[in-house]
Amino acid sequence: MDNSQPAVTQEPVPGSSSALRISRARGMSYRVPAEVTTRGAKYNFVVELTAHRPDGSTVVGLGEGQPRGWRTGDAPQSSWNYLTELTRRLEGLELPLQDLAGSLQAVRDLTADFSTLAEELSLDPEHVRPFRGTLLGVEVALLDLLSRAHGLPLAQLLGQRREEVIGVPETLRLGDSTRWRPEAGAEADGRYRRINLRPEAADTGVMAFVGLMNTVERRIAADQRQHKLWIDFDRSLEPAEAEEFVRLVVAAAAEGTLPGTILIEEPVRASEGLHLAQLQRLVDAEIPEDSQLDVRIMGDESVWDEASLERLDADGGLRAINIRPAQVGGLLAAVDLAEEALRRHPDTEIFLSRMVGGSRLTAGSLRHLALALPRIDEARVIAVVENALPLTDVEYLSVAGERAADEPGAAEGLDAAEERSVADGALRESEDTDDDDDGEQTPSSAPAAVSAASAESAESDSDDDEDSEDLEEPGFRQFGHPDAAGLGVVLTLNSMVGEIENMVSYPAQPVVQYEGLSPTIYDDVDNLHPLGPNGSKGHLLEREALALGLNTIRYSKGAFTATDGEHPPIPFKWSRNPLSSAVSLALCTHKEGTRLQLQRSGVPVPQGRTFTNGDFTTAKAFAQRIGYPVVVKPAMGVRGIGVVAGIQDDEQLDAAFELMSGSKLGNQDFIVEKHVSGRDYRIVVIGDRVVAAILREPASVFGDGKRTVAELMIDKNVARRRNPHLWARPAKYDAAARYELHRAGLTLESVPEPGRRVQLANTCSLSQGGDSVDVLDEMHPSIIEACVKTVRSIPGLEYCGVDFLLEDHTRPLDEQDAGICELNAHAAIGNCEYPMYGTPRPVARTLMRAVVDHYGLRTADEPAAEITVKVQVRGKVTGVGYRRWLRRRALHTGVSGWVRNVDDKTMETVLSGPTAATTALVASLILGPKRALPTTYAAEHLPHQSFAGFEIRDAQGTAGTEASTGATEDEDD
């Protein structure tokens, strides 16, 4: 590509307003769909800025941040706190609009201030460049806002220098024949100037070279030897192995068995990044005199700012760098880095990449950046999120706000979806549906370059630092840039109803409410997140055991034992405990046996009977005799599997039989009983006391006359994300929600009037977005008495959740239609510990105290506010980054202490701090980092003590060098 084109001249925009005032700043986080990533859970931040000109017109700017751990200096919670602070500071801010230079300088000044703030707010000294992935989203939103206000594409605001950019070729793994397309090599001449190979983890440089040569011999035809070869190691070699490898590569290139132009990307880990310049010197020394060979070492994770370039220059520098804006901290920082690299070495090749899991917001910003860099050789910026999640759409209107005459679709009669496809740039000749092993497909005849700011490549690329793009087969596509201001991308908020993990807005949005109640605020949600969606189920009882001074041994997420050191260990699994007998547990799972037992005790139960598996004829006659509506359910079941309620006639009954039979519990006897009208309650009984009661309501939102249904749902789900029991159970926009909205004459875009309740589901399941409301203090004594009597009627049952259908929990039982529909001897604790609305009830504490009293265990009189425990973890816990993972977790939860490896299968740690945070961290030890496989841990109390921070110690127990080196890669441990 010709990189000598002059910058596009920018003139002030005639008639621009003097200032743009940000009236609303909003930040959102969403989880990148697992099907488009290759390694672990990843989150992106979306920043939305709404601003007004003095004339009152509105403009919206968007940006996407990519927090990616050590690569970008971001840790999940602290990065979100940082974004929250930035959104607070952005509201009310004024940005100059007199000319482009002034607007651009304003963004530079703001990002400089925000970078200083990042250093002040960072909790982890290992992050030498904190929150750069987060800062990227804020900077792009500001740039998008200003470029839209000026009526220009973002590239022009940045100082556009060219009209087209070359896309990066696909990645080939050694030995991976299924991803190679022979035609790709034949058609690549001109457009795809490199063949990108990525070795798997290699033991030695020789083995890596042998694998490379084997792949080249099989994959590259003789007439393709002139193509450049790009080798991406992803930091898999030790320095000595890398030296061995490059010597072999240079020798092979000199002999003509490899192409004469070779690029080797980041062969050593980032902590060894200074060795890259030494490798380049070695390459240059190995190339024979008067040779035309061009072999370059490319810096990636090791190059993020001017200081890193200066350190590399001390050893001779590099002549190729891969710039990732999320790593360098923004688009403007990327321009500065490229200019500095070229100033130091004018022939430096510049490449551009996004981090894994980017949407069109990221891809669009990098396309514009590619046009404005002082030099760009190739770029990899394809968007993958939209393959699984319709987060954004493409603007295809002109900057003037009207469809251009030559705009794709303007004169061709395309429908909206086709217009978006054309505007998004994909021109594909045919869809690949060939499943043969050779994987051949017919390529289209693509031109040599990706035009007009699009640097997107359609090729698949399964680099662990990139995205798995197997959803789209490798092919050749030309992308056109939409003629629109700013990024040319809009947010489709409706698709994000169930996907937003967190949201912050300034000015603050009204709090979502339920009949005048605000959501209950919990302080421990961030501590419990690492335990997973059901983490509280297995943790709460152990938390209470440790708080009382008991020692524990955990065997899995759900199972642990507790002991005082004098009595035999007491086993627990999830909410199961030894107070209730095995016979009582078995009886509660047999619904017909339970119904008969309760009926004999005189508590209200629906009229019904059990039928033999398949005897639907007799069952239908019974339903006709007792009268509709009825309920059908398996005779023995759990979690509502196979249950169908509200059946109104014979036709619906036949459908219910079919549905129940197809469930996991459908091959057994079943029950038909009278449907009881009423609201759904879960009432928890321990011994002879009702200790908690919640009303379970179907998912719904309440209108405020301002927000759309979609916005209300997002706000509701954000509130649920701050609930330790409900954070992974959002209200969903699914078929049931669409049906309920249609029935109410509403859509997601509707703005319900103040106070109007909009129902979104016909089930009270909390897992489907239902609400939990604490009602214990309002419960009528007759209902409480009936619940205690119910549990007492089952011999040996000491802990139980009574599922009661009631018209009104404040009225006497004999004045309403009511019925107990189920007893749950394994009732989840979290729903009453963490109701969405109302008072939390200490069910776990009450249950643990009952166990302690029953078995006579020696414990403290009251739970401790702070504890210190020593924990030994066994399993695959060394050499997998466990110690650094634990140190990061401890720093972010405010727990102090130390950690060390005892032997190759044992890790030991001492943790000290507030009981809730410390016990949650203890529970997470059974999971560990992604490459760990712990089997057990034993937690033992120590006299309470405090530590200064958290240290990584050596096997002898003294502070090791790992605690202060600043190394950040999990693999280092």
Automatic annotation (TrEMBL):
Extent of Basic and acidic residues compositional bias: 417-430
Compositionally biased tracts (Acidic residues): 431-440, 458-473
Transmembrane segments: none
ATP-grasp domain residues: 595-852
Catalytic activity from the UniProt record: an acyl phosphate + H2O = a carboxylate + phosphate + H(+)
Keywords: ATP-binding, Hydrolase, Nucleotide-binding
E.C. code: 3.6.1.7
Pfam families named in the record: Acylphosphatase, CPSase_L_D2, MR_MLE_C
Active-site residues per Swiss-Prot or TrEMBL entry: R883, N901
Gene Ontology MF terms: acylphosphatase activity
Keyword Nucleotide-binding tagged: yes
Domain Acylphosphatase-like span(s) in chain numbering: 868-954
Compositional bias per record (Low complexity), positions renumbered to this chain: 444-457
Region entry Disordered, spans: 1-20, 406-480
Domain of life: Bacteria
Family: Belongs to the acylphosphatase family.
Protein name as annotated: acylphosphatase
Organism: Nesterenkonia aerolata
Taxonomic classification: Bacteria, Bacillati, Actinomycetota, Actinomycetes, Micrococcales
